[in-house]
Batch of 4 targets.
Target 1
Amino acid sequence: MKILKYVLYAIIALVILFFAMGFMNPFVKYGHSITVDKPIKEAWAVMQDASKFEQWLAGFKSIELISGEEGAVGSKYKVIVKPSEEEDDFEMIQTITSLNEFDHVTLDFDSDFMDFVQTTSFEEKDGTTKITTDSKVIGKSIISRAMFAIMEKLGRAFTTQEAENIENLKKVIEENTTDYYPTIKVVEDEVVEDLINGN
């Protein structure tokens, strides 16, 4: 009987500790920084290119504009992700809450069990670009807050995933061959005249 009593006490203590983690850690903050050997305009364009998201965002499946103007503050998107093969797809609503081209973008992701806010900042120096993320995940229940806190404290789950994504972004940017800012060739006046005259 004494053993059962001690086991019960241990279970109660663990339950109390679990919920205490949620109360003491209402959110988890983390981030990562990289420097890419590309100018800031190209680095920015690659990161904003939805056709490349799956190359650097783990679990990304799709993104769809549902309201507002594409790429504008206040615009909302439906984002579908699949965290792992064992987990089902889940949906988040992404809102652009702040954006200053070539400087920063702040995104808010809302789902049933969490709110995730991420600011990505850009800084150019001597032809290279430093990209820094500042992220915060907030559980919508005491249970999810406790789970997130334990995941981060024991295995640095959020920090590790962020680092993996941003290091993948570095690779995608540095291997980019897409010309996002093609130059317009100047045509000589006489050539224009020949074209007008049908010559």
Target 2
Amino acid sequence: MNETNEKFEPEIVAFCCHYCAYGAADLAGSMRLNYPANVKIVKLPCTGKVDILYLLKAFEDGADGVYVAGCLEGNCHFTDGNIKAKRRVARAKKLLDEIGLDGTRLEMYNMSASMGPRFAEVAREMTEKIKALGPSPLRKNTTLAI
């Protein structure tokens, strides 16, 4: 990591399932677990509702990193929404690679509502990963408005 990246604070968007990942985020807050404040949460009824366009739009609007956090595989409240989201994230990662934005800036995570510590860990993990990659080439000089 170079000196520029040490001062860089990435903007990260987390698309979270209402039932599991959002519950885990809420639990992390209730447990007073520290995780980076630069993670902006977008609550979805199910990660199956996340569209590739939403993921790409987050980058276009200045996000340095994006992740989708849904229910544990096999435990989706809407049967297979998280499986659909996983496929969409994989396709979006390929698109990001093709346009030169680096598909590793996008990830998919699965967790249950009782995994508050895991939510905080993922937020820290993504922040460190994006810090190492540096700012997105699409980053605007303004704060991300989510």
Target 3
Amino acid sequence: MLDTILNSIVPVFFVIALGWFSGKKNIVSKEYKKAFADYVMMFSFPLHLFISSAKANPKTLLDIKVISSFALALMGLYVIAFIIQKHIFKYDSRKAAQGSMVCAFPNMAFMGIPVLTSLIGPEALISVAIGNIITSLFMIPITTIILESKNATASPMEIIKSSLINCIKKPLIIAPILGLLCSVFHITMPKVIAHSCELIGKSTSGVSLFSLGLIMASYTVVLSRQVCFNIFMKNILQPILMGGLIILFNLKGVMAKEILLLCAMPTATISTMFGLKYGVSEVESSSSAILGTIFSIVTLSLLISYIL
């Protein structure tokens, strides 16, 4: 058991630390963090998802109970976090929405892939694809609408329409959908195409972790009430909520373990990007991502030892 935990966790944080060290010592300029992130989000990760979805069993991809429970864990915590921050912390809607995204958006792309593939194998990417579609169709558009509400010249419906169109056009949405179609209609890809996609897709884990370290090296860390709240909600409460939903929906097998592990991931890097883009809780968002990632060494190790 200890070997399993070490083999899945230590390599992940070693590569993150390597990226952080490279950024701090300016071996690799921190200015390249966006280029690395773009490479993962626009090319290697979508192709990785495409191949995995195309090879998957359609019943696994379209499992209503898995999709429903995962969506409730992600969006349910988002709503809970928003209500607490809006009505108890007395934050305005924009700050509450940004904080809710930090609390509820797991780092599926940069940490989920390497951890799950190490523990379960390449087939674990199916749960990542499902989670990515849920966040892209619901969490990202809702947060965008609220964050743009202050200076928006367009109507709420126009913002919703624009946000959904932008999300749907992204490779991270198109790729798993195309893969799903290949799976459902039993379309076999030529080996040369499959091997070409796999070649770049396999670079996702290493590059994503290195770029995460580079991103972490770019920001100042503070420990505040907001940061502690974010880390508690993301690293502790969300996996507990997901565990309860797994019991409620009577989910069993590998997929249940995958979505539970994904919910235990620290906050997604994209949540920090939103804070920077809209000028809302930038320091708190980046600090939550950095400290939450460090804290996840403990929480992920405990969870892995429990479920395996």
Target 4
Amino acid sequence: MKSYRDLEIYTESKRLAILVHNISLKLPKFELYEEGSQVRRSSKSAASAIVEGFSRRRYKADYIKHLIYAQAECDETILHLNFLFETESWKDEVQYKILISDYDTLSKRINKFTQWVEENLK
């Protein structure tokens, strides 16, 4: 891997963050700066943590720490999406289920990659 751009977990987290960003801008006005802001930040933070960790990969513990942060941000994004859907601020059930599934999958992939880093990087 020459760049974080080569990591599938990065490309997927970025794709999802852009999707969440666009969805959040269509929320009711009162949610734009509450849950909308929170879900935008957590979704973008997942991708950011992957990038930051990759740039610190020389220090295995730092790399792992940032991958764990990325997974935590994925899980936080799921929570915010749940809040938005369950409070009926966001009503697109099909898109909601797809996003939840995609974030669940991404969280698992980050976890597996973290395990790979733990076992294979010096």
